[in-house]
Amino acid sequence: MTVMIVEDTAILRKVMRNILKEFCGMRDEDIHEAEDAIKAIKSYKIVNPDIVFLDIAMPEINGKKAIGQLLTVDPGANIIMFTGSRDANDVIECINAGAKDYLTKPLQPQRVKEAVQKILDQKNG
Length: 125
Fold this sequence. Notes:
Elements: E1 3-6, H1 10-24, E2 31-34, H2 37-47, E3 51-55, H3 63-73, E4 79-83, H4 88-97, E5 101-104, H5 109-124
Parallel strand pairs: 1-2, 1-3, 3-4, 4-5
Helix pairs in contact: 1-5, 2-3, 3-4
């Protein structure tokens, strides 16, 4: 399994990477990072991740807009949003746009693991 973390803050990418390694059993080489949506969209076809963790608040293209662009590249993309926002409208907009799940910051390792497992179950089911 490969994942892509799309987050503009380096420390938060590192936190997510550590959670994926420690709680989901992932290896460094299977975790790819992009510091913005533009770079994520460009590298998506090369990386071909099973799951994209996508932050909402980013410069230039925010996560909400990036959902549609990623789904244009790959209609089957498994996108899990994560953000510090607690606004219910953000959740609804992201899910309606095609995100499979939604995590809030600070990230809870058990919740990240559950979101990953949910995607894996859907792919294998």
